[in-house]
């Protein structure tokens, strides 16, 4: 095995073998946070099919530093086309960066001249964007073909250095040539603890290693198999088939007959159809009653679909498309018929009809006539539609194909006036196209183009696109002074703005365009004009840390203490950026020197000192000089020290305690101290420091929790050590839980082992009777059970209702946990308040897999009786559970003739409830019909009293008698009647601190 990726050596193109999800995430963070110029700007996550790459990409896309993400779908070729990828990334960047102006280029331009289009679509607009205070990244999932890989390389070349790229792809060939343009981490679910937990949670009745090997590391395999088991399509005790394909074939055999045709129809539709659309088309292809067909589609969607349950889309993983194969001619014909019969057809419907006709067995002449009849001749095609056969058929039906693919916005973007003039002679563009063209030309500084557009379309010079952008603001954002002069000369109002009320001055201030800001102010721009968020140009410049711009705006009389909708001033916004660059600090000092009020509170009650402490701002001492109230509280009662501690800002914590003399044990509205907030957020260095200066580690908050209660939710022994002593380890919160219980519930084994060295409180329960053992078991942390087993003094672990832990585990379907529990000290003979053991629970739930587990571990008494003298077999019969009855009789050899305290046998019970299948089963395994209960009644007597004539006939045949004794008029009682309450399914969960934390600052 090759060595893993060495980040210390900054190696490029290296391959990390067998990284789990957690390891891969750690390596991603290490790569992303390392700003070294030696590091590659692209990180590629590779792995086998279905190993969790897309899951990983989605997790990354949820991070705040992710500014754009795109998912290529193998079943949707257009999703991998360069035009789609570029446009998707561009639109997301515009949403993320409000001052980014991107031209709306046509698909033809993006496809035919990708290099030039990228230059004008992304490179030039991003070049003049102010960089963010920290790096950001883009995620593109499923980069599988050479074309997309080439596009990624082009993107990396044109993107600014502060934007990085993460891609995912299938595992590369061992013969792959070294690539110095990217760093690679291989995702391997086979070595992933998360994968193991996923198997245990989804397939609790199976052996983990058996499933791991059979699945070949596929998360899809486990998810799909578990869904089939849960829906009863395949037996739970089935040996997992080897490989994804065999598993799919197994499930396919349980699906309705039309399954393959339905999936093929979904595949052929080109776009994901709704269930109603699929139902309408399926009727044309499948001879089946519509109500049955609707149920078939619902079942297929539920079993193999990937859409949420409440979604109307019929969406299945791509791999199912490959399983059912092609045979698409009939399917295309069915879809063509669907679009043909649709009442109101728009241009898209006509194109879809043409696509299906061109790929079906329809005679070309008939196809042309059909398209002509629905108005295809009125279409004007600017580029090829869907594919070449579709375009050819539409043209044959009379659709006009523009030989010249005019792109007005692109012409404006490149500044080619002659080309635009030629376009205008040929066509009359839409006002929106001209408006976007002017925006782009203004942003690029194409003065001749702007002059041309202003002369020919004067009414659009002041127009706003999308209700927000106008040419003046676009030019100001990119510092295009000539354009600003031109537009102002043309009479554009210097304070012209769209619906968001963001003026050109605000845009220039945000972007740090000093010369543009000066020009606009000299021209009379209103210095304190507010936008829809009540923010001024000064606030925008202060937030971005543009010191020179802030200075100029202040010289023009801007109000430094104006507040926005959230009560924040320019100083608040400046400090909330979190940047530690020199220009940022200079901006902070400039605001303070110009009388920025440090005492103003925002809507959260926070002053400048709060924000500076939270972000670890270098100007914290200077701010403290202006407002030396160190223990000031916000609306949550939190002091600057608490906020600094919560974010791990050690330097700020040291200043506040050593220089500003902050109260280290001050408490907030929740009764929490700075030490507790540091523990909550896992800030080990701050915890160590605060403990070292005397912070009270034994202080309890409003929940009765000490800092250690929160620290143990993190799997970090270094965090726990300064806080752990006999007093804190044994401290109980208001729920009666001590830190060991919380560590056990969170599965933090190393932390728990350290705490057990300090105290032997491991067996003490909380107020609800739950212990560390039961919490660990219900959270499926088997490693915790194995570790603490030698210290456990009470293995029964009954809850308040008297239900033993083993019962609860089985009822919760945690069979693999139950097996670990029993093999390490738990007893299968533990009984509840009604004398029922775990075999009774297995019988009442019809859980054959649990029964097999009990038989496998050995020493289990399958003949044990409850307080009513009833065996597990009787319990199973009362519940009409045939499967577990077969297992008990055939697999465990239980005696079918045992009697309860009323003298009733399992056969008597089956006769009373009238279950012919169970009666037959019991007779087959030797049940004696002539046994009489305590009132002298045989099973046939009970059947007669209960009115079950078919059972009477069956029993007469079995015992050779034609009559009954006729004794008595009542029947045996159900075991459930004897109990006041059934066994309740209880999943005991810890009162996790993280769920009770209201960290409103985030």
UniProtKB/TrEMBL annotation:
Gene3D superfamilies: Ankyrin repeat-containing domain, P-loop containing nucleotide triphosphate hydrolases. InterPro entries: Ankyrin_rpt (IPR002110), Ankyrin_rpt-contain_sf (IPR036770), Multifunctional_ANK_Repeat (IPR051165), NPHP3-like_N (IPR056884), P-loop_NTPase (IPR027417). Keywords: ANK repeat, Repeat. Residues 961-970 have a biased composition (Low complexity). ANK repeats lie at residues 500-532, 533-565, 566-603, 670-702, 735-767, 902-934. Residues 961-982 are annotated as: Disordered. The keyword Acetylation does not apply. Residues 26-170 form the Nephrocystin 3-like N-terminal domain. It comes from the Eukaryota. The keyword Repeat applies. PANTHER family: ANKYRIN REPEAT-CONTAINING (PTHR24123), PROTEIN HOS4 (PTHR24123:SF33). This is Nephrocystin 3-like N-terminal domain-containing protein. It comes from Caenorhabditis nigoni. The gene is Cni-T28D6.4.
